[in-house]
Amino acid sequence: MQWIFLSPHFDDIALSCGGLVWECSAAGEPASVWTVCAGKPPQREFSDYAKLHHERWETGTQAVEHRREEDRASCEIMHASHRYFNIPDCIYRPRRKNIPHYYTSGIDIFGAVHPAERKNLVNRLSQLFIREFPPGTQIVCPLTLGNHVDHQITRLAAERAARHLGVSLLYYADYPYAAQQPEQIASYQHQGWECVHFKISQGGLEAWYASISAYHTQISTFWADLENLRKDIWAYAEGQNGLCLWKPPEKSQGLV
């Protein structure tokens, strides 16, 4: 078995299933993390919203370079290979200078995908996936808990590619939204989604924590300090007795 974990942003796989990636690699099942929104920002003025992120991350305008370095360190901890796509994070899009930024607030990035992107970007990404998904590989994509637009775009494109190729996807619950909004998981269960359960060993838990800790710029977004991060990851894994990947019912149409 080989695995590809689709990560909308640099930290999403470590956050949501870093322990599982480590377990796959430890079992001799190669794992690769494909980060979708890993592209450099376009040469245009940053929005105020993007500037606020840079200030919080303490990266200045070199945010992508910093985050790539963190990601390489995290993937090394998980014993996973990595691949980066050239799509910029939603806070930087679109690329063209004469078009207003699509997402300029928290309401925007956790709302609906911009119509232009739902048509063009999803299609471009799905075509890339169709070309690049290796045969016989298990693809794992975000369930989109929290409703972040980049997570939605990744899932839409993965589902379109999977339908074209006739392959099945597994889905990870987007952490920490999975812990903050358990009613969303309950809704999927009510719709007939099934948990595919994976045990996470002590070594896997340590790798999970360490792989998240590698993203120094991101810790303050969700935790006061690393000790709180450790407690939350242990509690999250204990609540599932490991980790669930989610399998949709046979007649599921995905996000469409």
Structural commentary:
The longest helix has 18 residues, at 115-132. The protein is an alpha/beta fold. The two termini are 28 Å apart. The protein has a single domain, classed as LmbE-like (Rossmann fold), CATH 3.40.50. Helices cover 48% and strands 14% of the residues. It is globular. Strands 3-2-1-4-5-7-6 form a 7-stranded mixed sheet, with helices on both faces. It has helices at 12-26, 48-57, 63-78, 106-109, 115-132, 149-165, 177-180, 182-190, 202-213, 219-222, 226-240, and strands at 2-7, 31-35, 81-84, 137-142, 169-172, 194-198, 243-247. Helix 6 links the parallel strand 4 (137-142) and strand 5.
Q: How is this fold's topology laid out?
A:
Layout: E1 2-7, H1 12-26, E2 31-35, H2 48-57, H3 63-78, E3 81-84, H4 106-109, H5 115-132, E4 137-142, H6 149-165, E5 169-172, H7 177-180, H8 182-190, E6 194-198, H9 202-213, H10 219-222, H11 226-240, E7 243-247
Parallel strand pairs: 1-2, 1-4, 2-3, 4-5
Antiparallel strand pairs: 5-7, 6-7
Helix pairs in contact: 1-3, 1-9, 3-9, 5-6, 9-11
